């Protein structure tokens, strides 16, 4: 009896969605360590994560969006627009805290616009966010043209701070804390349940009294807010802002979410899975970076990874449904 | 419904007239031969790729990898011209077409056979194919002196000269492609199946339409057309740079296609609409340049145009639904 | 022409057809009648290749056949005309007729539009339909779309036509027009199956009637040699097997009152009162507008005119959330589409509606959730391993009990049940009935929409009958008979 229960628990762990990216992460880590001694340097590794904090923040929001059965292609552009506006504000003498708040407000507003278009006008999210992806970055481009705006020294270098006496950089801590909060919201609150319900069966959700439109608007707004944070971090890390910041970030974020076990059809996914898969994407990219693989090749690898992970989830799903 | 499409086409035409007039009134240089030539060079690439994108959107899909397919075919053919200086230009065009077809069929396979949603599949291949561009080219540009003169002539000369205006061969070839796609959509059973599939996918499967084959053809043809456009790109710009060839082109194309009356919810679209949409976007781009508004506005304009078409189609859809309900 | 022998069909373990024979003869309209759930549509769909029988055989002209999809049936000349026509709204009438098979000519296999339009016109003329072959199908009335589907079938030389509840959404005039065509096709030698529960139409059009009840064939009559009374008797047949839970107490105060409620194209001038402790049945045929009333009351749609009073207060729901807040619950007709989150746990489904009450400032109290849902689910006697099982693993009856538990947790004042026992086995059915009566006795007001006549007669304190969007009859429990109710629904 005891053994059975134990077997059951083991089986449960194995069927968790996080297991696949976790194993892949270990493999990637092992491969990286064999290739470069840097991989065994904890400080280097931790510092490397700073590069992916913006992507990570955005991926947390993307997890909610994909679970709800939608998608947001505009996240990279939102990060860029916030980054540019904040830099411009600071350059024109606006106090740092005010500029930061404005940036966060702007990010939320950009997300809100996406949400309203999707929920109120009932337009497909991939088309809405495809157009705002161009629109938001277009605004950033009009604002800055091809110039890059430097940020004030007092604002630069958040990634150089470390949590006292540990090698953990501040951005990583922020990411993990945010992940914890978003995770609790998704997996422990009424709102989180509604997100899953919406992605599982929108009609049944409406009949059960779920305020579907409000939930949609809210998840896009949250993602916008997280993109706002992303914009601040990227500014602080790079010390300058350009309109082409965070180019292609949507791809990394979507890949992390899908690799983390979320179903692109909605209704399934976990924040834990996204975080693990995010570190997987980060490890792969860091490894490729150490091996001097060019950025464009890395893009190809991530794109392929995205497609493969969707296919694998499809196969697993069709198998399990055939069994049922 | 036919009327509706005609209304949309007429709307695009009206918008075109407004843009042309406004630009001309603001600055008479807009209708000088130099600008018109510029517009005529803008249209071909948009038109050729737009034909494929239109079919994809009619089937309720989307292909955001067209720019990368264009880039890959462009760089491959460019490198071939570099290594084989006496390669026949038309053979080069055919190779570009074949390379694009192969990439398009990969997209089709992912979507039709592996059931990956079109936006995810082509978002993935958008990056993957762009990576291929760098892998084959090792990041090196194919300079103009390696491209055959015959190829670059396509954009300089043409069958028709009026005053200072030249109708370039590029436009002629693009027109041939548009007519061919138009004939395919109107006069072949497969072409009609494209519309049936987009109009009601469930009924299409039940009524015996080979859905998978139609999707493979649509995405394959879109790849092939993007490949052709890659060679036209080499002719128009006179060089092929792996970083810039076709980069971001998908947005321009989608904007041209949806502003040209292709219903973003699938089921309807027309060659004429894409022609008008391409012309409109070309005029806007050239107008921006002539009016001294830098190219920096382009992305914003594309985003705005797509959003506008979306909201318009969405409202039309709801209006029609409410009308059918009342009837 | 086509012969089906000993056809058996089971969905999710429930047998819907239990060995039925039917023969469709050329030049004859063969009506298949029966109550909802009797299996008549399923029988039609087996002949047309939509469903595969688990046992039994099909033969055409003596040759055994089997179809794995509707296309194969079509290739053998068998076509199904649906209640909701399968058309392509963006395409023309002609293309809808020839979809995938447009006439081609020349070495390039170019579509010959002249020929296509000519042939479409020819077919439309031959059945006497005045439709422009070039007009788009979008916006055509349903009746015309059905004609297009019929024309498509004829263009493929269909010899057997199965009309599955085709008249359900048509006006009387449109039904007349359809029948003219059906008679013409019959005289031209087609075999026609007419699946319906509208007896007046059945007597108008058919030569032969097969009566099904609970998946079994209970009779076959020549239309000329029988009458309405006999058919109704055969359809209703057995004395109600669910024992019935008759009114237990005197009804109390009015809880829900609809007054002159209308919604264009759905229902008109509906007056209805439900009192505390009362089960009111809304009987009638599919498509009579009953589900639409439920949806409007529950805030899924909005009524155009009229008013609703709930518990003495004026009531208007903008959405289901409002309705739930005011103490309404709706168990929808389509359980899987509107009622359940199939891949989610039983517990997660049960707590859906009351999640907010189980939460403290937005945080779900999982202990409380587990306790309250387990308590409610226990009352339902659901066959399950644990509340963490996925709902999709349950049988239809147990799934329905989960839906009920979900709504009862919200302790509604008025419970609307739309086809509460459709597609569930007899044991679960009796339990659902017992529960309904218990709830009513505890003071709840219940509106039961049901096409299951024995259920309506056995369960309700009062019966309202609807036909084509209007209430056409009201009967007290003791005064109601199957014949009276059927009469008001079909007459």
Give a nutshell description of this structure.
Chain B has 327 residues and is an all-alpha fold.
Secondary-structure map with pairings?
The complex is a heterotrimer of chains A (324), B (327) and C (491).
Chain A: H1 2-14, H2 19-35, H3 42-49, H4 53-67, H5 75-91, H6 96-119, H7 125-144, E1 149-150, H8 170-188, H9 190-200, H10 202-207, H11 212-238, E2 240-241, H12 249-259, H13 271-290, H14 295-323
Antiparallel strand pairs in A: 1-2
Helix pairs in contact in A: 2-13, 4-8, 4-9, 4-11, 4-12, 4-13, 5-6, 5-7, 5-11, 6-7, 6-11, 8-9, 9-11, 12-13, 12-14
Chain B: H1 2-26, H2 33-58, H3 66-83, H4 89-113, H5 118-137, H6 149-156, E1 160-162, E2 165-167, H7 169-187, H8 189-199, H9 201-206, H10 211-237, H11 249-259, H12 271-290, H13 298-326
Antiparallel strand pairs in B: 1-2
Helix pairs in contact in B: 1-12, 2-7, 2-10, 2-11, 2-12, 3-4, 3-5, 3-10, 4-5, 4-10, 6-10, 7-8, 8-10, 11-12, 11-13
Chain C: E1 2-11, E2 14-24, E3 28-33, H1 40-47, E4 55-60, E5 63-65, H2 70-75, E6 78-81, H3 93-98, E7 104-105, E8 110-111, H4 113-126, H5 142-155, E9 160-164, H6 172-187, E10 191-195, H7 199-205, E11 208-213, E12 216-222, H8 228-236, E13 254-263, E14 267-275, E15 279-284, H9 290-297, E16 305-310, E17 313-315, H10 320-325, E18 328-331, H11 335-339, H12 346-350, E19 359-360, E20 363-364, H13 366-380, H14 396-408, E21 414-418, H15 426-441, E22 445-449, H16 453-459, E23 462-467, E24 470-476, H17 482-490
Parallel strand pairs in C: 3-10, 3-11, 6-9, 9-10, 15-22, 15-23, 18-21, 21-22
Antiparallel strand pairs in C: 1-2, 1-4, 4-5, 7-8, 11-12, 13-14, 13-16, 16-17, 19-20, 23-24
Helix pairs in contact in C: 4-5, 13-14
| Integer average pLDDT of chain A | 89
**Assembly level:** heterotrimer
The helix-strand sequence of chain A is HHHHHHHEHHHHEHHH
Give the overall form of chain A. Answer: globular
Shape of chain B: globular
Give a description of the structure.
Chain A has 324 residues and is an all-alpha fold. Chain A contains 14 helices and 2 strands, in the order H-H-H-H-H-H-H-E-H-H-H-H-E-H-H-H. Chain B has 327 residues and is mostly helical. Helix content of chain B is 75%, strand content 2%. Chain B has 13 helices and 2 strands. In chain B, strand 1 and strand 2 form a beta hairpin. Chain B is globular. The mean pLDDT of chain B is 90. Chain C is built from 17 helices and 24 strands. In chain C, helix 4 crosses helix 5 and helix 13 packs across helix 14. Chain C is globular and about 75 Å long. The chains are: A mainly alpha (324), B mainly alpha (327), C alpha/beta (491).
């Amino acid at each position: 009896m005891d053994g059975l229960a134990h077997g059951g628990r083991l089986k449960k762990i194995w069927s968790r969605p996080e297991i696949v990216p976790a194993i892949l992460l270990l493999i990637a880590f092992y491969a990286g360590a064999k290739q470069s001694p840097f991989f065994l340097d904890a400080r280097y590794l931790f510092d490397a994560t700073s590069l992916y904090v913006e992507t990570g923040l955005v991926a947390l929001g993307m997890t909610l969006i994909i679970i709800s059965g939608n998608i947001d292609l505009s996240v990279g552009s939102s990060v860029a627009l916030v980054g540019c506006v904040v830099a411009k504000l600071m350059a024109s003498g606006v106090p740092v805290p005010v500029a930061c708040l404005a940036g966060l407000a702007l990010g939320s507003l950009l997300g809100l616009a996406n949400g309203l278009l999707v929920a109120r006008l009932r337009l497909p999210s991939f088309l809405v966010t495809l157009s705002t992806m161009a629109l938001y970055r277009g605004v950033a481009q009009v604002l800055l043209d091809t110039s890059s705006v430097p940020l004030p020294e007092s604002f630069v270098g958040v990634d150089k701070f470390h949590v006292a006496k540990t090698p953990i950089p501040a951005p990583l801590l922020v990411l993990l804390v945010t992940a914890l909060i978003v995770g609790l919201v998704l997996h422990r609150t009424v709102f989180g349940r509604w997100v899953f319900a919406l992605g599982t069966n929108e009609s049944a959700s409406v009949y059960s009294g779920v305020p579907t439109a409000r939930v949609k608007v809210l998840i896009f707004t949250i993602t916008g807010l997280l993109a706002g944070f992303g914009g601040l971090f990227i500014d602080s890390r790079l010390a300058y802002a350009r309109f082409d910041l965070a180019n292609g970030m949507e791809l990394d974020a979507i890949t992390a979410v899908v690799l983390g076990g979320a179903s692109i059809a909605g209704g399934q996914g976990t924040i834990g899975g996204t975080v693990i898969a995010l570190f997987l994407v980060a490890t792969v990219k860091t490894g490729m970076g150490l091996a001097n693989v060019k950025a464009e090749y890395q893009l190809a690898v991530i794109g392929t990874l995205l497609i493969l992970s969707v296919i694998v989830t499809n196969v697993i799903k069709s198998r399990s449904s055939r069994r049922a | 419904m036919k009327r509706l499409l005609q209304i949309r086409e007429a709307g695009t035409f009206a918008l075109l007239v407004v843009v042309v007039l406004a630009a001309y009134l603001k600055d008479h240089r807009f209708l000088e031969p130099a600008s018109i030539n510029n517009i005529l060079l803008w249209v071909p690439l948009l038109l050729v790729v737009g034909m494929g994108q239109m079919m994809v959107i009619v089937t309720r899909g989307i292909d955001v990898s067209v720019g990368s397919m264009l880039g890959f075919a462009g760089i491959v053919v460019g490198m071939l011209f570099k290594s084989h200086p006496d390669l026949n230009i038309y053979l080069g065009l055919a190779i570009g077409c074949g390379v694009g077809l192969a990439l398009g069929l990969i997209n089709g396979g992912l979507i039709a056979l592996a059931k990956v949603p079109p936006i995810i599949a082509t978002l993935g291949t958008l990056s993957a194919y762009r990576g291929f561009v760098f892998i084959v080219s090792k990041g090196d540009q194919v300079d103009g002196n390696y491209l055959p003169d015959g190829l670059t002539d396509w954009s300089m000369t043409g069958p028709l000269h009026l005053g200072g205006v030249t109708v370039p061969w590029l436009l002629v070839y693009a027109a041939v492609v548009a007519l061919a796609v138009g004939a395919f959509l109107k006069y072949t059973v497969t072409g009609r199946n494209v519309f049936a599939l987009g109009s009601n996918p469930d009924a299409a499967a039940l009524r015996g339409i080979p859905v998978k084959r139609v999707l493979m053809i649509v995405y394959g043809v879109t790849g092939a057309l993007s490949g052709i456009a890659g060679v036209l790109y080499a002719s128009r710009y006179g060089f092929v740079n792996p970083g810039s060839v076709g980069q971001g082109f998908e947005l321009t194309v989608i904007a041209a296609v949806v502003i040209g009356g292709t219903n973003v919810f699938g089921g309807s679209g027309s060659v004429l609409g894409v022609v008008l949409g391409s012309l409109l976007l070309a005029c806007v781009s050239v107008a921006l340049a002539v009016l001294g508004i830098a190219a920096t506005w382009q992305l914003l304009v594309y985003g705005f145009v797509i959003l506008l078409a979306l909201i318009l189609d969405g409202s039309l859809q709801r209006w029609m639904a409410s009308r059918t309900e009342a009837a | 022409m086509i012969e089906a022998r000993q056809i058996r069909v089971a969905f999710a373990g429930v047998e819907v057809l239990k060995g039925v024979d039917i023969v469709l003869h050329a030049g004859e309209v063969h009506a298949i009648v029966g109550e909802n759930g009797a299996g008549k549509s399923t029988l039609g769909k087996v002949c047309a290749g939509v469903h595969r029988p688990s046992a039994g055989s099909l033969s055409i002209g003596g040759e055994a056949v089997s179809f794995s999809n509707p296309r194969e049936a079509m290739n053998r000349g068998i076509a199904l005309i649906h209640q909701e026509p399968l058309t392509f709204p963006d395409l023309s009438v002609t293309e809808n007729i020839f979809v995938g098979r447009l006439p081609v000519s020349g070495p390039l296999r170019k579509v010959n539009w002249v020929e296509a339009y000519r042939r479409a016109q020819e077919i439309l003329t031959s059945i006497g339909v005045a439709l422009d072959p070039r007009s788009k199908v979008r916006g055509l009335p349903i009746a015309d779309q059905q004609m297009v589907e019929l024309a498509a079938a004829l263009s493929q030389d269909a010899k057997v036509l199965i009309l599955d509840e085709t008249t359900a959404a048509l006006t009387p005039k449109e039904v007349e027009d359809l029948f003219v065509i059906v008679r013409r096709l019959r005289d031209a030698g087609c075999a026609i199956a007419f699946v319906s529960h509208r007896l007046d139409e059945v007597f108008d059009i058919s030569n032969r009637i097969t009566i099904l009840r609970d998946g079994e064939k209970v009779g076959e009559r020549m239309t000329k040699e029988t009458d309405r009374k006999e058919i109704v008797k055969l359809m209703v047949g057995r004395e109600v097997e669910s024992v019935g839970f008759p009114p237990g107490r005197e009804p109390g105060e009015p809880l829900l009152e609809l007054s002159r409620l209308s919604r264009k194209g759905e229902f008109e001038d509906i007056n209805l009162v439900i009192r505390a402790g009362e089960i009111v049945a809304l009987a009638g045929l599919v498509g009579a507008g009953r589900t639409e009333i439920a949806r409007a009351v529950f805030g899924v749609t909005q009524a155009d005119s009229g008013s609703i009073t709930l518990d003495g207060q004026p009531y208007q729901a903008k959405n289901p959330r409002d309705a739930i807040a005011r103490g309404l619950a709706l168990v929808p007709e389509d359980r899987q589409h509107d009622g359940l989150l199939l891949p989610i746990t039983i517990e997660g489904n049960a707590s859906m509606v009351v999640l907010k009450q189980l939460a403290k400032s937005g945080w779900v109290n999982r202990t409380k959730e587990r306790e309250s849902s387990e308590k409610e689910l226990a009352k339902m006697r659901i066959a399950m391993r644990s509340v963490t099982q996925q709902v999709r693993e349950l049988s239809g009856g147990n799934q329905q009990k989960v839906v009920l538990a979900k709504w009862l947790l919200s302790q509604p004042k008025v419970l609307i049940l739309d086809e509460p026992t459709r597609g569930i086995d007899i044991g679960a059915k009796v339990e659902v009935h017992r529960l309904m009566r218990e709830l009513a006795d505890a003071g709840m007001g219940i509106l039961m929409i049901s096409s299951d006549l024995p259920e309506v007669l056995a369960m309700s304190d009062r019966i309202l009958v609807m036909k084509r969007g209007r209430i056409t009859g009201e009967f007290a429990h003791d005064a109601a008979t199957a014949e009276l109710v059927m009469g008001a629904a079909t007459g």
